[in-house]
């Protein structure tokens, strides 16, 4: 699952689901592995070429040159996995994307055009078998097939088929307007073709519907909004996650949608940070010999790291930032608890976390900063921090924790610092 | 002067027969050990699957071990001897004038490591197998993926015997 999007590679033996994509060390070649095992599939060298510059197109997109992709079933040959792989990389970059199952086949060239591939009929037949045993909502699924292939149907087993000539055609579906579903996209296209007068009436109809819905919400809405305004996020979660009946369930769904509109998006938060280093642990105690510089994601020098300070600040004064900084001396989540967890404090420059190391970080150490930003300062219990601070970014635990708080109208940001 | 004694002749014949029998038995034993052709295929053919008891037999058969060592010397592109490591720390890199070998832990799966092999001469015939062993230990053989631009990579469990041998200084390596 990648930001709500699940990408499947269509193969003649059935779809291979892309389970995760994670950055690997630049020293190694990119690999495609089977289900988390220590088995690089034979297509791995081709995937590395697909990723790494100068030929690769993924590094141009992401800026990183080595990845590990895990998939659920074998892909042993060919290049038809490329379209799905590229879409998955794009989805990984998106903070949000619709819940969507993408089934794709196609070869991608360096101009990001999609080239024809063989065995489309067999792949679709295998997909049909897959759909019999996998509960995939048809209205939350799309199939991408190269337009260069002939005899493409518009629909397969209830799923819309898109014939794509370029990667951009496919990306429109998971594009910046993340509420667009395939079916909605089609209706939106239709709307564009309607007359201006028709659009005006439609607007009035939508407005009246919203007013009606507000009345229908009644007391629930007011209570939930109050909890939201007061930052009582845990209570709010309890309230909207436990509807008493079907009507309440519908109301909570609508309220969740409303909260999603309140979530800060797009460059709402800036980070700053400094790192203080010295020749040895003893020198950390002597300010004159400690040097300071901007913090980077990784630290490779042999110097002793005395202290890390990170700040998070927002341009919009209506937004509030909270967060935790956790220190994992032997690696992220490697021990039961982080050695230190800090809440930070507000400074004129923003919310600031200052970590002076009692046990200086050795290679493998990780410091993770999690910020949660919203329209109110969160009060009370915040159980989501546990997974946010210890789980890897692509892990289900992290994703679930992130979705949990983002569903309440907050945005989560992560800054990891690694000592190499 | 020799004595013409039938009993003596009989005794000599018996001793001779016993010696011949022993020789035959030894010869039969030898024929049950690993044939040279098997050792040869083991070293030169990555798709060759040795008999199930191959390792046990090899362990007991000094002659086969000598043959294996000679073949490895002869067939290998590169030999990486044990390292005279100053510390007993984990080895992550071995280099000769022919090849470079590095071990890089996976960022994604903590229990897995990447073994990357780079042959310096782009025009050399690329190895197809790697043989590793610790001092005095048995050889461990693994087929290598095809080289691309004189490089190849294996993903290994960090606890696998090959990864463990490669990460200690007293491991030695042949690339064949």
Write the layout of secondary structure elements.
The complex is a heterodimer of chains A (420) and B (176).
Chain A: E1 5-9, E2 16-23, E3 31-34, H1 44-51, H2 58-62, E4 67-71, H3 82-93, E5 100-104, E6 107-108, E7 114-115, H4 120-133, E8 141-146, E9 155-156, E10 159-164, H5 167-171, H6 182-192, H7 196-217, H8 219-229, H9 233-241, H10 246-262, E11 269-278, E12 291-294, E13 298-299, E14 304-314, E15 320-328, E16 340-342, E17 345-347, E18 350-356, E19 366-374, H11 385-390, H12 396-406, E20 411-419
Parallel strand pairs in A: 1-5, 3-4, 5-8, 8-10, 13-20
Antiparallel strand pairs in A: 1-2, 2-4, 6-7, 9-10, 11-12, 11-14, 14-18, 15-16, 15-19, 17-18, 19-20
Chain B: H1 6-32, H2 36-44, H3 54-60, H4 62-75, E1 78-80, E2 93-95, E3 99-105, E4 112-119, E5 129-134, E6 140-143, E7 151-157, H5 161-166, E8 171-175
Antiparallel strand pairs in B: 1-8, 2-3, 3-4, 4-7, 5-6, 5-8
Brief synopsis:
The complex is a heterodimer of chains A (420) and B (176). Chain A has helices at residues 44-51, 58-62, 82-93, 120-133, 167-171, 182-192, 196-217, 219-229, 233-241, 246-262, 385-390, 396-406, and strands at residues 5-9, 16-23, 31-34, 67-71, 100-104, 107-108, 114-115, 141-146, 155-156, 159-164, 269-278, 291-294, 298-299, 304-314, 320-328, 340-342, 345-347, 350-356, 366-374, 411-419.
Would you write up a description of this structure?
The complex is a heterodimer of chains A (420) and B (176). By secondary structure, chain A is of the alpha+beta class. Chain A folds into 3 domains: 5-192, Ribosomal Protein S5, domain 2 (2-Layer Sandwich), CATH 3.30.230; 197-262, no CATH class; 270-419, no CATH class. Helix content of chain A is 31%, strand content 27%. An 8-stranded mixed β-sheet of chain A has the order 3-4-2-1-5-8-10-9. The model of chain A is unreliable at 177-199 (pLDDT under 50). Chain B has 176 residues and is of the alpha+beta class. Chain B has a 4-stranded antiparallel β-sheet. Chain B has a 4-stranded antiparallel β-sheet with strand order 2-3-4-7. In chain B, a hairpin with a 3-residue loop joins strand 2 (93-95) and strand 3. Residues 23-32 of chain B have low confidence and may be disordered. Chain A binds chain B through residues 20, 22-25, 27-29, 31, 33, 36, 38-40, 42, 44-45, 48-49, 68, 331, 392, and chain B through 102, 104-112, 114, 116, 145-146, 148, 151, 153-157, 160.
């Amino acid at each position: 699952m990648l930001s709500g999007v699940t990408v499947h590679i269509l193969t003649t033996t059935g779809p291979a689901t892309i389970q995760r994509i994670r950055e690997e060390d630049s020293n190694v070649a990119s690999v495609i592995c089977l289900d988390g095992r220590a088995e690089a599939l034979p297509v791995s060298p081709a995937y590395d070429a697909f990723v790494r510059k100068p030929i690769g197109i993924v590094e141009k997109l992401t800026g990183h040159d080595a990845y590990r992709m895990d998939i659920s079933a074998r892909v042993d040959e060919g290049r038809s996995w490329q379209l799905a792989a590229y879409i998955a990389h794009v989805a990984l970059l998106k903070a949000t994307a619709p819940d969507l199952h993408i089934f794709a086949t196609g070869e991608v060239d360096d101009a990001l055009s999609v080239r024809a591939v063989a065995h489309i009929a067999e792949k679709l037949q295998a997909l049909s078998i897959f759909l019999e045993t996998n509960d995939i909502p048809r209205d939350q699924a799309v199939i991408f097939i190269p337009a260069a292939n002939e005899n493409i149907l518009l629909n397969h087993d209830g799923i819309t088929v898109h014939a794509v000539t370029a990667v951009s055609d496919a990306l429109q579906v998971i594009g910046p307007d993340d509420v667009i579903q395939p079916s909605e996209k089609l209706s939106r296209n239709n709307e564009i073709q309607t007359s201006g007068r028709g659009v005006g009436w439609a607007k009035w109809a939508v407005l009246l519907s919203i007013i009606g819905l507000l009345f229908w919400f009644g007391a629930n809405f007011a209570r939930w909004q109050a909890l939201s305004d007061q930052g009582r996020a845990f209570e709010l979660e309890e309230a909207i996650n436990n509807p008493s009946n079907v009507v309440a369930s519908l109301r909570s769904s609508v309220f969740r949608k409303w909260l999603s509109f309140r979530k800060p998006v797009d460059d709402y938060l800036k980070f700053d940070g400094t790192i203080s280093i010295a020749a040895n642990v003893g020198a950390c105690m002597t300010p004159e010999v400690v040097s300071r510089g901007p913090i980077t994601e990784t630290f490779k020098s042999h110097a002793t790291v005395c202290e890390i300070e990170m700040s998070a600040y927002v341009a919009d004064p209506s937004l509030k930032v909270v967060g935790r900084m956790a220190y994992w001396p032997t690696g992220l989540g490697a021990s039961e608890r982080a050695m230190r967890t800090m809440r930070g404090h507000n400074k004129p420059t923003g919310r600031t976390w200052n970590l002076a190391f009692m046990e200086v970080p050795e290679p493998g150490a990780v410091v993770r900063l999690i910020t949660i930003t919203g329209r109110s300062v969160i009060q009370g219990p915040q159980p989501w921090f546990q997974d946010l601070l210890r789980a890897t970014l692509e892990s289900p635990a992290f994703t679930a924790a992130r979705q949990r708080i983002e569903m309440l109208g907050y945005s989560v940001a992560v800054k990891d610092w690694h000592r190499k | 002067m020799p004595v013409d004694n039938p009993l003596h002749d009989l005794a000599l014949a018996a001793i001779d027969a016993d010696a011949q029998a022993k020789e035959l038995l030894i010869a039969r034993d030898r024929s049950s050990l690993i044939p040279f052709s098997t050792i040869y295929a083991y070293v030169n053919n990555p798709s060759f699957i040795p008999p199930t008891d191959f390792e046990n037999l090899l362990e007991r058969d000094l002659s086969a071990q000598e043959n294996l060592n000679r073949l490895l010397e002869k067939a290998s592109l590169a030999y990486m001897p044990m390292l005279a490591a100053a510390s007993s720390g984990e080895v992550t890199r071995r280099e000769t004038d022919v090849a470079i070998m590095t071990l890089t832990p996976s960022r994604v799966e903590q229990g897995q490591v990447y073994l990357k092999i780079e042959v310096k001469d782009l025009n050399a015939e690329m190895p197809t197998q790697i043989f590793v062993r610790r001092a005095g230990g048995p050889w461990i053989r693994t087929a290598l993926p095809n080289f691309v631009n004189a490089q190849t990579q294996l993903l290994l469990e960090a606890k696998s015997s090959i990864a463990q041998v490669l990460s200690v200084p007293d491991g030695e390596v042949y690339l064949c």
